[in-house]
Amino acid sequence: MAIYHFHGKVISRSSGRTSVAAAAYISGTRLTCERDGRVHDYSHRTDVVHSEIALPEGAPDRWLDRSTLWNEVEATERGCKAQLCRSFDVALPRELTRAEQLGLARAYAKSFAEEGMVTDWAVHDKGDGNRQHDKGDGNPHLHLQMPMRACDRDGFLPKCKSCYVVRNASGEEREATAAEVKELGGQWEKVFTYRGNRRLTKTEAEAADLHPTRDRKSSSPVKRKIRTTDWDSPETYESWRKRWEDMANEALAAHGSDERIDRRSYAERGIDLLPTVHLGPDVAAIERAAREEAKACGEEYAPVTERARENERRRKINELILELVRIMTEMIRTRLEHARTLEGKRRAQRATARRRPRRKVPYAPQRGRKVSPRGGYGR
Hints:
Helix content: 25-40%
Strand order of the largest sheet: 1-5-7-6-4
CATH architecture of the largest domain: 2-Layer Sandwich
Largest sheet: 5 strands, antiparallel
Strand content: 15-25%
Radius of gyration: 37 Å
CATH class of the largest domain: Alpha Beta
Number of domains: 3
Number of helices: 9
Structural class: alpha+beta
Distance between the termini: 88 Å
């Protein structure tokens, strides 16, 4: 069945990785990192179905060569702890055919290129590529890798830009680069830090009886570094996850499948079930080998790793929860049907019963009590 799996991470030098090695892995090719001279050869891989590079509008055509693109990324990022690129791996719906999976992957990669991101993407699968994977070893998924920087026709742009804090006579404040300050003219003035950590313009300092230069704590104006893109914000990442959910569900609907994926967790959907633990490729390979060995020996398969045992425990708990919910639902439904039946019988009895007239009883006062002239008991 179709599942939602969308995992993103940042590849950085602090973890000892390079963008060239990661690109060689997802594309199944042989690439040489010019920065350290190491050769990364993954040309022996047989699970790479397709690989491609999607360029945004205005990007240099030389980046269609994978080696040129990622070696240029390595040359642009200079720090020993520099963040090199983003990497996503996304599960493709197994209900789709191979052509439909590639079309969905290409459309999703192009959506990043339309935002200005160079996108190197590849589809991996060990299955046979048919709509139904009879062997059960098919795990179609999409890899995406994008540099951290925006670009233009000359190459990559800075991640951040240094801006001055400027203020006008009305007290409005904004950030502006040096070129933008010249375009704004004299209506906007740079902000400096004065005695008492007061941030004032020259005009405001003179109005506060401060010398416009001697009372400054620093000769440099107040500056702020601003990201040139919003790609690092949690809201943007969530929009990418939502986009994949929408595009995958549209592809499933076009295919005629009733399956749908949902990016939300059980807790967000109000489902009282325990989520399973992601096994990962290494643990999944161990469990797959154990399953095949148990099948060859004619024995019942039992998980051999801690994660798989935990998933089996959670699966049994979820089955118990679902069974309890089913029993309680059936009991409530039976009680409601019984109550409706009784209420119907009572209504029928009330409708068919004859109402007898009430017999009039003559007035008989109790013995020993005086009767008042009005016919009632005396006081």
